Amino acid sequence: MEISNTIRYIGVNDHKTDLFEGQYQIKSGISYNSYLILDDKTAVMDTVDARFSHEWLDALQRELGGRKPDYLIIQHMEPDHSGSIARFLSAYPDATIVSNEKAFAMMQKFFGVPKDTDKTLTVGEGDTLTLGQHTLTFVLAPMVHWPEVMVTYDALDKVLFSADGFGKFGAPDVDEPWKDEARRYYIGIVGKYGPQVQALLKKASGLDIETICPLHGPVLHAPLEQYLNLYQTWSSYQPEEEGVLIAYTSVYGNTQAAVRKLAEKLRGLNCPRVELRDLARTDSDQVVADAFRFSKLVLATTTYNAGLFPYMRRFVEYLTERNFQNRTVGLIENGSWAPRTNKLIHEAFAGSKNITWLEDELTINAAMTEENQQTLQKMAEELCQDYIAQDSNTADKQDMTALFKIGYGLYVVTCRDGERDNGLIVNTVTQVTDTPNRIAVTINKENYSHHVIKQTGKMNINCLSTEAPFAVFEKFGFMSGRNVDKFEGCEPLRSDNGLVFLPRYI
Question: What is the SS3 assignment for 401-432?
């Protein structure tokens, strides 16, 4: 398969393995990707799992067309990518291995390959290798997701060889959407290392990339915004979608009845998505990915042997070890004589950042009561308060408590030029009088928004919360709406004046 005129795909598909890394189900298989760059010098990008060495070497030989590889570049030493190094060296002993210091230390342990010989080349951050027309730049990416990982940028074809980054479960010969299996892969494999992924994304932002070649899954072509935006969301631990995930266990059906009743109430209160997951009957890694996907989570379970029900205990461990944060969480516990799971879950999340607990928590003593029903209603209303406020039919449009939020802070002022929505960051908003209600907003006259508001006489003021990620400030503070559509690719909410308001972080 051609990536470009001079880059070939020589990876293999694996439909034999049932569990990736011994734990993740891969019903659509997995790929071990390798690439060949043909230039004055030839370079092979990574190898494949040892079980597929002969198939890979056959593909390499076909694409070489009688030539010999000059370089083998190793970006990641996990055995599903490095497993064929020894056989490659046996077939092509004159090739030079290119990698970083940490990778060579692992290579010596795995395969006895010594470093610092005339057949090895150690590279570091920003080092380059010229093949002819192609110049490769090496970028270190530690803990994405092993400590020796690096990625490689080809300036000629604007290709990023991204190691495990931007990979997915599922072999490329299976036609399926990218996002769902990429999310499950990311959260499971790399989810713990969000700060390291953020560091790599910052480095990548300075490169002109048109194609991403990962070590698992399909090659990604421009436009790449959807992939980059998702990685930005996942690695900053922000919700991908508004909605409530209810993860539960139930022994005799009473806890299940409670969560079904809660789901019914949520749907009646404009909740955009409500998903129920029985932890005993759903792949745990899929539910973990769903928990990172949605903005709100309800955990409902039974006290079992004076502790958490086993499936819930494992689920909570999976979440906390992957740095689950920035979410609203509600709790439902059931216990016939000594319910204590709510307390145990609070303790389990003690080290998690920015967890907002629902004020109302439910305790069921065996079966539901009328009082329990009332608590469920309160939980549903608290979970849906944002959605109620965002819906034109249910919002309290005369809620003057919004004025209490005005102070020294940052705001996004939105407007519309007749064809396109716009927004910018401002830092000066003040209430001038209360009778009538008058608010003053200071906007630089050079800004496009000033021109639009002066023409239309309309604007919305969004008071940003402290949870607003840097991406919000990048979008509304670092670019002009005159030449950039700041709401491209999203469906913003609108108030009665026809202008948008932000669905989150206000």
Answer: HHHHHCCCCCEEEEEECCCCEEEEEECCEEEE
For position 14, what pLDDT does the model report? 97
Q: What pLDDT is recorded for position 400?
A: 83
Question: Would you state the pLDDT for residue 7?
Answer: 98
pLDDT of residue 111: 86
Point out the residues of the chain with pLDDT beneath 50: none
* pLDDT for the residue 491: 76
- Give me the amino acid identity at 165: G
Q: Answer for the pair 216, 480: CB distance below 8 angstroms, yes or no.
A: no
Token pair 């690096």 is found at 150
Q: Alpha-carbon distance 415 to 450, whole Å?
A: 9
SS3 378: helix
Measured between alpha carbons, how far is 273 from 181 in angstroms, rounded to an integer? 19
What confidence tens digit (pLDDT) does each residue in 163-181 have? Answer: 999 999 999 999 999 999 9
Query: How crowded is the C-beta side of 469, counted as CA atoms within 13 Å?
Result: 16
Question: What's the rounded Cα separation, in Å, for the pair 86 and 502?
Answer: 54
Q: Write the CA distances from 373 to 76, 259, 278, 385, integer angstroms.
A: 53, 11, 21, 18
The percent of the chain in helix, strand and coil, each rounded to the nearest 5, is 30, 25, 45
DSSP 272-285: S-EEEEETTTS-HH
Tokens of 295: 């903005």
CA 232 from chain center: how many Å?
6
Any idea which residue has 């951050």 for tokens?
Answer: 125
Q: What angle do CA 180, 216, 71 make, to 5 degrees?
A: 160
Which residues fall within 8 angstroms of residue 243, CB to CB, at 6 or more apart?
Answer: 271, 272, 273, 274, 275, 294, 295, 296
Name residue 294's beta-bridge partners: 241
Contact partners, residue 75, CB within 8 Å, separation at least 6: 45, 46, 81, 99, 103, 149, 150, 151, 152, 161, 163, 215
Cβ contacts of 37 within 8 Å, gap of 6 or more: 6, 7, 43, 44, 45, 131, 134, 136, 154
| Structure token digits, residue 461 | 């003021």
In this prediction, residue 295 carries a pLDDT of: 96
Residue partners of 393: CB distance under 8 A and separation at least 6: none
- Helices 225-235, 194-204: axis angle to 10 degrees equals 150
Give exposure, 20-54, as e/b (b: 16+ Cβ within 10 Å). Answer: beeebebebbbbbbbbbbbbebbbbbbbbbeebbe
Q: What is the pLDDT of residue 483?
A: 87
Provide the β-strand partners of residue 426.
Answer: 411
Query: What is the arrangement of strands in the sheet containing 220-221, beginning at the earlier edge strand?
Result: 128-130, 135-140, 150-154, 159-161, 211-213, 220-221
pLDDT on residue 393: 87
pLDDT at site 439: 92
pLDDT tens digits, one per residue of 314-347: 999 999 999 999 999 999 999 988 899 999 999 9
Asked if 247 contacts 300 with a C-beta cutoff of 8 angstroms, the reply is: yes
Reported as a single tens digit per residue, the pLDDT across 444-466 is 999 999 999 999 999 999 999 88
